[in-house]
Write a structure and sequence with these properties.
It is globular, with a radius of gyration of 26 Å. By secondary structure, it is of the alpha/beta class. About 30% of the residues lie in helices and about 20% in strands. The protein is built from 22 helices and 30 strands. Strand 27 (about 715) and strand 28 form a beta hairpin. The strands form eight sheets. A seven-stranded mixed sheet has the order 1-2-3-4-5-7-10. The protein binds beta-D-glucopyranose. Beta-D-glucopyranose (BGC) binds near residues 136, 183, 263 and 471.
Length: about 750
């Protein structure tokens, strides 16, 4: 007996160390349970409920009596948003600017978890300097529709890519001491009717596609809070959805933190209280007196309120509160963040096409005409919540001027009008186009043609804007707006050397543009250093290395939801919840929100979203998922696997050699897709399961190994309501893009 005790004691430190090492990221929230027990025991019901709703637009209450500070939230996701007041209008402070990081789809185009981590670190650090506890982001919904208003905020049409970026972003932010609030949980894949739409979905697609990035955010990255989405899922609103919040998020994934409603997205008292929502943001009409009354009437047990307070206090204790006098003392933006913003931007630019190697810009180019208003347009704000007052912003034109070699002349002409709108309503005005399909203004067009004539190179900066792609509504198509197709055609008649740069968050229809542009570049809304990054790529100071995180279809009508007749929805309820709730000045006060119908959005394309659809249906696209050219070529060789058969708990290791055959340093992103052969279960043609960003000097060869845990190849079995592995042969397809597979091999699982 004695011996046993001695043995146990000796083993104790080892056991403790093992516990710390095996602590899941979610367990970090549980370090203060005893303290929290005591606090809750001493709180009145009123005091508890005070914590469960908005104290202001961007804060929920702490426990002032105990000196426990309020929780301060900040949009997110790509810069710490400026302070706002009534109607979310900026307060005009001078100390609340921050770093504008590239937006979601741009970050995603880097295909780099490491860069996402650095990005998160920057966001988390700046949030601390602004006194913010929680970043309302990352926004990680699957980009289901090419027209989706929030495509630019979201990462990808692919759940694996979105998950890797989300994990990087979250770890970076939380390691810097700020909580994330992963959003929008779940299925906020369209803005049309976003707060009344009832998403009708099968469990398998839900699990395999739409929940995957969220699952990784909770289980792998340990996100400390989650934002419920506005919409319904299979008949029930997300903030009161037992299956979503209590069964999956808390039950299956082990989430220990609070769920915060999207802004204005709480719709009930008792169902929301019972089924998993912690905080109504902002306002208190459901989670204020009504909640107190519901507890007193016995409709909501006080233990449920206690648990909500506990989950919030876990967050409060995990994130250090910053006293008001210690924040906003200086501008939040740091040099490191700005360097990260540049690095991300430079690796996000995607070279879509480069006929005749017109890029990089040749040394004998002496006169450049930069055409298009997007060359000077700022992209830091707009799009409703996801904006930031940036410390500065280098536009494409400024970047080109900064980086142009000495002696190179750079002229500029706007060519097209601005398209101004507020929450989707065109605002008109003499300098603004009245509609998106308005023909080019003859005077602006003539000036642009004159500027292009006789120059060595035209850089046509086209694309959309944050008044065209925005939260609150979807685009009606993906056509280039305000006559850009006609403009590029006219430019080509006087100068065929055209490099078109698309500045957008989502895909555009390039059918016309491509006829007149030997080179096309996707330049994104690429943060405060976006112009410099773009110009470094154009002039060849660095090789382009971004890859598309979503498909560019030939036209919107080819996309799965459209082709299946699932989108656009026949019924559009019109007004957006956010404007109806907070901007009655815009809606004219006609708020009938609670009486809205809930049109159903059917997801009958199931797993065939994005490239899964185009691949499986063998439909051509303009640019495929994962596409992105370089100034060098890469040679793939010697593919091998470490075994030929794998057990269900095994990991497939795929090795190959990758050579940069060009004459400059460049990054390549090898992508590994898996295809099930002779399967009984139906799968998309192939699915992304691993990738890596590899830097290679001129002429350098590296051996690269990509790993795929066999468990990642399971499917969701609806009959058994669980993950299941179908054994059999699979093909591993390795390539430079989803439509550029270079090598393949087969193994058995
Ligand atoms: C958006 C959220 C955002 C919130 C606060 C909502 O309209 O959907 O993503 O964080 O507003 O600005």
């Amino acid at each position: 007996m004695k011996f046993k005790i001695v043995k146990l004691l000796a083993a104790a430190p080892v056991i403790l160390a093992a516990c710390a090492a095996t602590q899941t990221p979610q367990e970090r929230l549980l370090a203060h349970e005893k303290e929290i027990d005591k606090i809750i025991a001493g709180m009145s019901l009123e005091e508890k409920v005070e914590m469960l709703h908005g104290k202001s637009n961007m804060a929920s209450e702490g426990i002032p009596r105990l000196g426990i500070q309020e929780i301060r939230y900040a949009d997110g996701p790509f810069g710490i948003r400026e302070e706002n007041g009534a109607g979310f209008r900026p307060l005009g402070w001078t100390t609340d600017s921050a770093t504008y990081f590239p937006t979601g789809s741009a970050l995603a185009a880097t295909w780099s978890e490491e860069l996402a981590y650095k990005y998160g670190t920057g966001m988390g650090t700046e949030a601390r300097r602004r006194g913010k506890d929680v970043i309302l982001g990352p926004a990680i919904n699957i980009q289901r529709l090419p027209v989706g208003g929030r495509t630019y905020e979201y990462f990808s049409e692919d759940p694996f890519l979105a998950a890797r970026l989300a994990v990087g972003y979250i770890k970076g932010t939380q390691d810097a001491g700020t909580a994330v609030c992963v959003k929008h949980f779940a299925l906020n894949n369209q803005e049309t009717n976003r707060a009344s739409v009832d998403v009708n979905i099968d469990e398998r697609s839900f699990r395999e596609l739409y929940l995957k990035p969220f699952e990784a955010s909770i289980k792998e990255a340990g996100a400390w809070s989650v934002m419920s989405a506005y919409n319904k899922i299979n008949g029930t609103y997300c903030p009161e959805n037992e299956h979503l919040l209590n069964e999956i998020l808390r039950g299956e994934w082990g989430f220990n933190g609070p769920v915060i409603s999207d802004w204005g997205g709480t719709y009930s008292t008792v169902p929301s209280a019972l089924h998993g929502l912690n905080v109504q943001m902002p306002g208190d009409n459901y989670f204020g007196q009504a909640l107190i009354d519901s507890v007193k009437a016995g409709a909501v047990p006080e233990s449920v309120i206690d648990l909500k307070v506990r989950e919030l206090l876990r967050l409060r204790f995990t994130v250090e509160a910053i006293a008001p006098e210690n924040c906003n003392k200086e501008v939040a933006s740091t040099p490191e963040s700005r360097r990260t913003a540049y690095e991300v931007a430079s690796k996000a630019v995607v070279l879509l096409k480069n006929e005749g190697s017109i890029l990089p810009i040749r040394k004998d180019v002496k006169k450049i005409a930069v055409i298009g208003r997007n060359a000077v347009a700022l992209t830091q704000s707009g799009g409703v919540g996801a904006g930031v007052k940036s410390v500065y912003e280098i536009t494409p034109l400024q970047g080109i001027k900064n980086k142009a070699p000495e002696g190179v002349e750079v002229a500029y002409a706007p060519a097209y009008k601005n398209y101004a709108s507020l929450y989707g309503r065109a605002s008109g005005g003499p300098d603004n186009a009245a509609s998106l399909d308005e023909a080019p203004d003859p005077k602006l067009l003539a000036e642009a043609v004159a500027a292009a004539k006789g120059t060595d190179l035209v850089i046509f900066v086209c694309g959309t804007s944050k008044t065209i792609e925005s939260e609150g509504f979807d685009r009606s198509n993906i056509k280039l707006p305000v006559g850009q197709d006609e403009i590029v055609k006219a430019l080509a008649q006087v100068n065929p050397n055209i490099v078109s740069v698309i500045i957008s968050g989502g895909p555009c229809d390039l059918q016309e543009l491509t006829k007149y542009s030997p080179a096309i570049v996707e330049g994104w809304w690429n943060g405060l250093e976006g112009g410099n990054a773009l110009a470094d790529v154009l002039f060849g100071n660095i090789a382009p290395s971004g890859k598309l995180p979503f498909t560019f279809p030939i036209q919107f009508e080819d996309s799965p939801a459209y082709a299946m007749g699932n989108f656009p929805q026949k019924e559009d309820v019109g007004e957006d919840l956010f404007t109806s709730t907070f901007r009655k000045d815009i809606t004219g006060g006609k708020d009938k929100w609670q009486n809205r119908k809930s049109p159903k959005a059917f997801y009958t394309e199931k797993l065939l979203v994005g490239y899964r659809w185009f691949d499986t249906k063998r439909k051509p696209v303009m640019y495929a998922f994962g596409h992105g050219l370089s100034y060098v070529d890469f040679e793939y060789g010697n593919i091998s696997t470490d075994k030929s058969r794998y057990k269900p708990d095994g990991t497939i290791k795929v090795s190959f050699t990758l050579k940069n055959t060009g004459d400059m340093t460049a990054d390549e992103i090898p992508q590994l897709y898996v295809r099930h052969l002779n399967a009984k279960v139906e799968y998309p043609y192939k699915e992304l399961k691993a990738f890596s960003r590899v830097t290679l000097d001129a002429g350098q060869t590296k051996t690269v190994t990509l790993e795929v845990p066999v468990s990642e190849l399971r499917y969701w079995d609806e009959a058994e309501n669980g993950w299941k592995l179908e054994e059999g042969e699979i093909e591993l397809l390795l390539g430079s893009a989803s439509d550029d597979i270079r090598l393949s091999t087969k193994v058995t699982i």
